[in-house]
Structure formats: C-alpha cells, structure tokens
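Trying the structure run again after the queue cleared.
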Amino acid sequence: MAHVMAQAVLEIFPQAQIAIGPPIEDGFYYDFLLPRPLSNDDLKDITKRMKRIIGGNHDFVRRVVSADEAKAMFANQPFKIELIEGLAAGKLDEYGNKIHDESNVLTTYKQATFEDLCRGPHVANTRELNPEAFSISFKEPAGAYWRGDENNQMLTRIYGTAWETPEQLAEYLERLEEAKRRDHRKVGMELGLFTFSELVGKGLPLWKPKGAILRDTLQRFLYDEQIWRGYLPVVTPHIAKIE
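Done. Tokens:
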C-alpha cells in the first residue's frame, strides 16, 4: 500500500523526492521531500488517486537489478541513490545500520507506472487491497529526519493504515480517537494536575499543587513498598559526563 501511496503522491508532485516507505505496526508510512507543505485537501486528492490505482488491478512485479541499473533508474532520486550505494558497497539499510544478510541482491517492485526499490514481499495484485478500508494522515509536525538523523534533511512523513474491511478500519480509527480522549497529558491538564510551558520545554510538566501531592503520594508508596520487599535505595547524579 505504501507503493500505491508513493505513486499517487508523485502524480500530484512530479518533482517530489521519495525516500523510504516501510511497514509499521498497524500500517505503513512513506517519507517525501515535497515542494510545499501538505494540506488536508492534498490528502483527499492522494486518497482518490490511491483508490483509482487500486481499481486498476495492477500486478506487483518483482525484478532483480544491479546497482548500476538501480542508480540509472533512480537518477533523479538522491535518497534512493544513497540507499543503493549503501546497499551495494557497505550493506547499509535505510537507517544506516549494517545488514547481516550476505546476499548482495537489489530488487524492485513495479505496479502500473511506478517502480520502487524494495525488499518485499508484496501482494500479487492491487485487487487484493480494499479501496474502502484504508486511511492516510500526517501528524503535526508532519516531518521526520532522513535516516532518523537530525543533521539530515527534514522530510514529510505520510502515515497510512489498511485493513480487510471498512468495519475493521472504522474500529481502528475509533480506538485512535479513544486513545486521544484518554491521553494522560490531556487528562492531567484537565484535572489541574500539571501544565506545560514552552519556556521550560516540550514534555516537561510543571506540577500544580494537586499534581504535586499525587506525585509525592505515589513516590512514598513506591519507596515504602521497595523497602518492605528488601530493596535498599541509592542516589545517582542527575548530570553525568558526555564521554
């Protein structure tokens, strides 16, 4: 499904640069370097194009290629060139980590007019994908550093999830909404336990009186429980040497 999304994005942004599109828990994502920020209207357009591509009943065709063939194929895609060179020379994966597989084989998968560097495997044909049982989104900030390194370029990451039936998709999306409603950061602020300030930093709570009392009560309970179970406390510095 990530390949279908990448094809749809390139139809809208032909000058876009494509990076990686791996599967993740409950879905997939793909990273792009786009000429402008994405909008919700763009997501709607991408979704429509993905449904059209799925409806084309395209085979996913695997092909083994040499490094030179792959570099010629992706000559205008610098992120792919970097991946190919790493795989061919240093056996590095998309995150720059060593690959333990000794087989020096590069493969691509093609559906319709789109061909992507990929280890696979894939479904045999887009007809196996349900056009009414997927959803795509981007999170704010909708970005990720290339290869997870903050010194590299910031890319736009589009997430997706795909299921066998629309009912399964609806159940999954409802679970996500319920998780948002129960987010401890949201609930804690609503209960007046803590607050956040940009002056302090993201993710660093400032405990209000009720929250401080609750926090202290939990710490006392844990301390007493550990002592009762025979553990002895130690105290280490909050700051240490970088080396």
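The two ends are 43 Å apart (CA to CA). Worth checking whether this holds up in the mutant runs.
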